[in-house]
Amino acid sequence: MRRYSVLRLQPKEQDQIDFLHNVYMNDVKFDFWKSPSEVGKEVHVMLPDDVEAKFLPLLDARNITHSVMIADVKKVIEEQQQKRIKLRKQVRMRDWREGKVQFNLAQYHSFADVINYLNALAVTYPDRVSVQPIGTTHEGRQIPLIKITNKRSVGQKRGIWVDGGIHAREWVSPSTVLYFIHQLVTQYDRDAQIRGFVDSLEWYIVPLLNPDGYEYSRSSNDPEIRLWRKNRSPAKCIQQSSGLFQPPTTTCCQGVDLNRNFDWFFGQVGSSTDPCSEIYQGEFAFSEPETSAVRDFVQRHRISTFLTFHSYSQILMYPFGHQVRTYSNDLNDLRSTALLASQALRSVYNTQYKVGTGADTLYPASGGSEDWAKGKAHVKYSFLFELRPEEQVWDGFLLAENQILPTARETWEAVKVIAQQTLSLPSNVARSPLKRCIDHDSLCGSWAQGGACESWPEMRQRCPRSCKVCT
């Protein structure tokens, strides 16, 4: 049986980044937990032992510093599973099972458990909770959305969209979102601020946007299954050349990276047309039932804020992520709100978050949901959270259950800041299109190709289309 390990790479020169990025984009045998982005930032990659044996000499030849972060991924998965089984046999503290509906927020749950919890909340708190499906997955699972608002308070309300679990292996994401639901529902009568959020806002929350992938990742301790990222779309096959005098081989792989499948510069950067790639973008934008469900729901409702939760790296991102130094017209508002939110998060356990666009803080990637929400759905506030752990911590996607509640508690403080900002929006600020994006000079295209967007301060105002700053 193949043994999988995770390597920690520390590129210190641009040519090392370029080499690793080429591997990331073109070799599906490597599962990058943290992709190559810029000099000085760590890269984490999971690979089987036979591939590792061939890869290490290539790293040494390029003087790329490397060390073993996890020696045996399956062993860690099995150890964590045994800890979970042991803990569940013990009596848990009431703090974790608070409220009329008993649900242990301090553990990872199955999709069925999540459905039962949401339905129990709707039955127990009918005056402020309702549950509905927004779509059906490839494997026939309904994608549940819970709506939380005071049904007795009339008038038009702003909406906040929250989703988790778009990537299957990022288990702390849906667990964190479930904590938000718990707070909004059970603390309504105890916390005046939460009561205001429920009375004056409509919360549309999808804790598990990718239930097929999530359940698949729970089905085995095999690292290739536990660390599954995509959805479970039917297999797509491609033919690959196997040598000058050899017939081509056919390879078939399942799944689409849902966060490359939204209609925002679809397929242009940071995604792949290879169905075997971890970042396979799909055949076309919104080709997947999960992403089209998000599109259809958001477009039909008055959404002012869009929050999507991932792991890991401890980053709070705002649009746009498809290109470095590319921002929306209300950048100052987005950034100041993100900074306030990260400060509130830090006040709980002193957890440090970076703030910026995905392209500026990680790497450019198009087709992301938060970019689409801002650029195409015209949502005012759109943010992506990369939750715990930080990049230097060894466990990555295998975050232990004792980290769920600390992660959720601190992140909830950030969400409350963003919700308060949403409530404070002037009544005339609606979902309106961004400014019309046109160039004001016939030479804009050639200037942009020459790098003027970065070097000439007036270029962005004069040539916004060519600089791609108001698309």
UniProtKB/TrEMBL annotation:
Belongs to the peptidase M14 family. Residues 107-422 form the Peptidase M14 domain. This is Zinc carboxypeptidase A 1. Keywords: Carboxypeptidase, Disulfide bond, Hydrolase, Metal-binding, Metalloprotease, Protease, Signal, Zinc. Pfam families: Peptidase_M14, Propep_M14, ShK. InterPro entries: CARBOXYPEPT_ZN_2, M14A-like_propep, M14A_act_pep, Peptidase_M14, ShKT_dom. Its cofactor is Zn(2+). One of its GO terms (molecular function) is zinc ion binding. It comes from Caenorhabditis auriculariae. One of its GO terms (biological process) is proteolysis. The active site is at residue 386. The keyword Hydrolase applies.
